[in-house]
Design brief:
805 residues; 0% strand; extended; ribosome biogenesis; rRNA processing; nucleus
């Protein structure tokens, strides 16, 4: 039919258009070079090839019209230089006169001089006529001698004229100077400084001038150095600690810094022009005293021997010398007593100096030993990261709290992760070792609480540096504690409250990790573990009461920000109040495990002695009660019980403030209110334990008393119906808007349809390419197998021939 024919023609046209446009873009998608034919009429199908060629030729002639090639010198073009034609310049028509070196026009040659010296022919010896004259008769040629004489006279005349011009200019200048002096007196004259009087007063600067001068002398902003990175700070700190450690070791070995800084002895003949070495190995020119005395004795002996040898050849001289010596001895015999006294005085002075020297040396030795001992007692400035808990314990044990903090700080600085590759793993292990060390300090009797409090800071820094390793270490601690609790319940049927170290871990977890998250990988297991402690650990002793109240305090700290409701906390506080009541009748409330209405420990906190109540003073419970409760008097035990009750009251107040906005607050606190009002003898307790009973009443729902808001009234709009049976708007603008919306939807659907068809076309092209590649690969594989089979057959045939032979 005609419709099918039109549809097939449209499909073919669409395919042809996509083949020419979309397929071409698809094939050239990875190509960066594109050749575009910009010739006139190349893509215009309405113009015939002949017309294209004619118009291209005409355009080429138009472009070349009026343009001349600057490199083609054969064309008839007039070349110029500074506005003058080169052809005229080559004719050399201008007359150039020669002159001496002192003339103003240097380097200029006249035409006659050029013709005389560079003519090269007889024709140039003729005198050229001026440009304006045309003589019909030819002049007689002059000889060379006449031309030279004429040239000399002309040059002398020109020189004389220039000299006259210079003299005239000098006279005019002198005349002008003399006249200027007469005119200068008529102009405004400024008196010189020497003639000025000192009566003139300089004006004082005003406030603005002072401010401007002060601003000129203000300090300008100096450019500051860039901020250093964390790695640079760590490197500088490590270098500083290494330098301090080297200084400490030097002092510990008794090497004085002043001795190192003393200038080395150098000879007077040394010109200091030797090689530059890393270390000066030259020996000092010093000789010990003993060596000097020995040399002097040897010199004396050698001198005596020489004298004896010299006396042998001349005996007369020797006799004269001995006679003179005898006369000298006789003449000085009366001074022997004086010389002896002088020698004794000098010996005494030498002994005193020697004694002072020895005393000074002993004092220096004492000071040196004191410095060595002080250096040995100092903490090392560099520490290697401990690889085991025993090494960390050996570093920290036996030191004060401040020294332990310094050791941990230097370990972190010397083993910063940015300094070496393996430092990160070492510091991650350090967190676990430090956590274990804190647990051990908590189990010591008495527990070192202050040291634990100070060690939390380096633990927090390590946690901030390595949060993953810290969370894994703390989670492992809680997993082990929960596993131990389950094993104890399976074996004994009940669990006991943990030791102080586990409670310290719970407190540290609140400091290290955020407790306000809905779910946290460390805090959530800690909350579950605390809830198990409050529900599965029975109260057997007073220590268990203190531990349970400590866990309740931690529970409130955990949920203070998130305001999460903890029913285990409320039930435990209700049980604490229950074991403080005397006679148990009809309870009016329900107890939850681990508390029982009646039993051995149902009156654990009961206090009936009035004297103990009167002497009790409110104070915090010490932590050493959790580890070991010393045998004390009954009064002290009652005071501890009253302190536990006071702590329970404080926790109840905090719970009321925390959960006061809950809609079920009345039902939550109803059992505790019943115990306080009906069973617990609060009236007999001291004034510090008196509670104000404020009941919270429900208020009935009441509608808000507001004036009713009337409904808005709108004036009716009359719409003129233009066409019936079609969707019409309020006016022409609305109709135009609806028409554009409808057109946009139609165009959008058409565009989506075309995009879908383009995708299908590209998919077909890709499929055909894939099939062609597969067919080609199969053909090549088949050809390869055929060649291999042929080779195999030939090889087997050759093998059979060999066997036959």
């Amino acid at each position: 039919t005609i419709e099918q024919l039109c549809y097939s023609i449209a499909l073919k046209q669409q395919k042809r258009v996509r083949t020419q446009t979309l397929l071409k873009e698809y094939k050239e998608r990875d190509k960066s070079n594109v050749f575009k034919d910009k010739r006139f009429g190349e893509y215009d199908t309405k113009i015939s090839p002949e017309e294209k060629m004619m118009k291209r030729f005409a355009m080429e002639r138009q472009q070349n019209y009026g343009k001349k090639s600057i490199y083609n010198l054969n064309e008839d073009e007039e070349l110029t230089h500074y506005g003058q034609s080169l052809a005229d310049i080559e004719k050399l028509n201008d007359i150039v006169d020669s002159d001496s070196d002192d003339t103003e026009e240097k380097g200029i040659l006249s035409a006659e001089l050029t013709a005389a010296h560079f003519g090269g022919g007889g024709g140039l010896l003729r005198r050229k006529a001026p440009m304006g004259q045309q003589d019909e008769e030819e002049e007689k040629p002059k000889s060379r001698k006449e031309l030279i004489e004429e040239l000399i006279t002309k040059s002398k005349q020109e020189k004389r004229e220039r000299q006259m011009q210079r003299e005239n200019a000098m006279e005019l200048t002198e005349k002008l100077d003399s006249e200027w002096k007469d005119i200068q007196a008529l102009l405004a004259h400024k008196t010189p400084k020497s003639e000025r009087t000192g009566k003139e007063e300089t004006p004082k600067p005003d406030e603005y001038d002072k401010m401007v001068r002060e601003l000129g002398f203000e300090m300008k902003a100096q450019p500051s150095d860039r901020m250093k990175t964390e790695e640079e700070f760590a490197k500088e700190e490590q270098e500083r600690l290494q330098k301090l450690e080297a200084d400490r070791l030097r002092r510990m070995h008794g090497i004085d810094e002043q001795e190192k800084k003393k200038p080395k002895h150098m000879s007077a003949d040394d010109l200091a022009d030797g090689f530059i070495l890393d270390k000066d190995d030259r020996c000092l020119l010093t000789i010990p005293m003993k060596r000097v005395e020995e040399n002097q004795e040897e010199d004396g002996e050698n001198g005596g021997n020489e004298r004896e040898e010299e006396s042998e050849p001349g005996s007369e001289d020797a006799e004269e010398a001995t006679a003179e010596e005898i006369d000298a001895i006789d003449s000085h015999s009366d001074l022997e007593s004086d010389t002896g006294s002088d020698e004794e005085a000098s010996e005494n002075e030498e002994e005193k100096k020697k004694h002072k020297r020895n005393k000074k040396k002993l004092q220096e030795e004492v000071e040196q030993n004191a410095k060595i001992e002080a250096a040995r007692s100092e903490l090392p400035y560099t520490f290697a990261a401990p690889e085991s808990y025993e090494k960390l314990k050996s570093l920290l044990s036996g030191r004060t709290m401040e020294q332990q903090l310094v050791v941990l700080e230097r370990i972190q600085k010397c083993n910063h992760p940015s300094l070496e590759v393996g430092n990160k793993a070492k510091l991650e292990k350090l967190f676990g070792f430090l956590l274990e060390y804190i647990g051990e300090l908590a189990t010591v009797e008495p527990p070192e609480v202050k040291t634990i409090d100070k060690l939390v800071l380096p633990l927090y820094h390590l946690c901030q540096m390595f949060p993953d390793a810290a969370s894994n270490s703390v989670k492992l601690v809680f997993q082990d504690a929960a596993h131990d609790m389950e094993e104890m319940i399976e074996v004994k049927g009940r669990a006991a409250f943990p030791v102080l170290d586990m409670l310290i871990y719970l407190k540290i977890t609140k400091i290290l990790f955020p407790a306000s998250d809905y779910w946290h990988p460390v805090v959530t297991p800690a909350l579950v573990y605390m809830s198990q402690l409050l529900t599965k650990c029975p109260i057997a002793t007073l220590q268990d009461v203190v531990k349970g109240l400590f866990v309740c305090c931690l529970f409130l700290d955990y949920v203070s920000l998130s305001q999460r409701f903890a029913p285990e906390l409320i039930n435990f506080l209700l049980g604490i109040l229950h074991i403080a009541t005397p006679k148990k009748g009809v309870l009016g409330y329900t107890l939850v495990h681990p508390f029982r209405p009646l039993g051995k420990n149902s009156e654990q906190l009961l206090v009936q002695d009035k004297e103990d109540m009167e002497t009790w003073q409110k104070q915090n419970l010490p932590l050493h009660i959790m580890t070991r409760l010393t045998e004390s008097s009954k009064m002290e035990m009652n005071h501890i019980k009253l302190s536990c009750i006071a702590l329970c009251f404080d926790l109840i107040k905090r719970c009321a403030a925390l959960y006061g906005l809950l809609p079920s607050f009345h039902e939550i606190m109803q059992p505790i209110r019943g115990v306080l009002t009906e069973h617990l003898p609060v009236s007999r307790y001291p004034k510090h334990l008196q509670l104000e009973n404020k009941e919270k009443h429900y208020y009935p729902l009441v509608c808000e008393k507001k004036k009713p808001v009337p409904l808005k009234l709108y004036t009716p709009k009359i719409v003129k119906v233009l066409e019936f049976g079609r969707k019409q708007g309020a006016n022409k603008e609305e109709q135009e808007r609806q028409r554009l919306i409808h057109k946009h939807k139609r165009e959008f659907k058409g565009a989506v349809r075309e995009i879908r068809k383009d995708n299908q076309f590209l998919a077909r092209m890709q499929l055909s390419e894939t099939m062609d590649r597969d067919a080609d690969r199969k053909r090549r594989v088949k050809q390869l197998f055929n060649s291999l089979a042929t080779q195999e057959g030939e090889w087997k045939a050759m093998k059979r021939k060999k066997f036959k032979r």
